[in-house]
């Protein structure tokens, strides 16, 4: 008797949409300063399209290597108000002198304002999230007809991570990374 073993087929990477800003997708209740859906499940190798859908409020689409957004914020953004970026690298506000300025003004932290890597983040060249560092769109403003998108390829180990807005505490969503090829009826692009 001969048993034929079929080779495993490679899973086809998919793109999943994570919507942010004030306008919810059809079927979701209205909510301001929120990501939709609250939990996004992807396979390793899939891409997330963080897409703004609304106008008037700036946001960041920032993926962090933590399953606890509040603890990550406390460690990396600090207690609020101007912070020393050498202690809190993702603090929203920083004293001007800590970022090369020459006065006593308060500035938006350049790490928050700019993308983590300005050479990626498009559909043709997504940034890569490997689970060890922060990947961020930087501060994005949405205007009618010009809603931003930020594309991230997820290669992180199996686990739970967090998308958050660096400007708005509480604006966050869980990202669950599954093993490539894992079959789950809950994964839908």
Question: What's the topology here?
Answer:
Elements: E1 15-20, E2 35-36, E3 39-43, E4 47-52, E5 62-64, H1 69-76, E6 93-95, E7 106-108, H2 110-113, E8 127-129, E9 135-136, E10 149-154, E11 159-164, E12 172-178
Parallel strand pairs: 1-4, 3-12, 8-10
Antiparallel strand pairs: 1-2, 4-10, 5-9, 5-11, 6-7, 11-12
Structure characterization notes:
This protein has one domain (16-21, 37-48, 63-178). Helix content is 6%, strand content 28%. The chain has helices at residues 69-76, 110-113; strands at 15-20, 35-36, 39-43, 47-52, 62-64, 93-95, 106-108, 127-129, 135-136, 149-154, 159-164, 172-178. A hairpin with a 7-residue loop joins β11 (159-164) and β12. The longest helix is centred in the middle third of the chain and has 8 residues, at 69-76. The protein is globular and about 55 Å long. Residues 2-9 have low confidence and may be disordered.
């Amino acid at each position: 008797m001969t048993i034929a073993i079929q080779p495993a087929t490679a899973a086809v990477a998919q793109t999943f949409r994570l919507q942010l800003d004030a306008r919810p997708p059809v079927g979701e209740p209205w909510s301001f300063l929120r990501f939709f859906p609250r939990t996004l499940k992807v396979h390793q190798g899939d891409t997330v399209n963080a897409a703004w859908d609304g106008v008037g409020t700036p946001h960041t689409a920032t993926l962090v290597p933590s399953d606890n957004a509040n603890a990550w914020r406390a460690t990396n953004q600090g207690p609020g108000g101007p912070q020393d970026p050498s202690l809190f690298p993702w603090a929203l506000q920083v004293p001007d002198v800590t970022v090369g300025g020459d006065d006593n003004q308060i500035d938006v932290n350049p790490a928050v304002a700019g993308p983590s890597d300005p050479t990626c983040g498009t559909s043709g060249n997504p940034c890569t999230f490997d689970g060890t560092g922060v990947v961020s769109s930087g501060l994005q403003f949405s205007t009618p007809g010009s809603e931003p998108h930020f594309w991230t390829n997820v290669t992180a180990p199996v686990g739970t991570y967090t998308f958050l807005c660096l400007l708005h505490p509480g604006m966050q969503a869980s990202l669950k990374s599954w093993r490539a090829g894992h079959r789950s009826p809950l994964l839908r692009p």
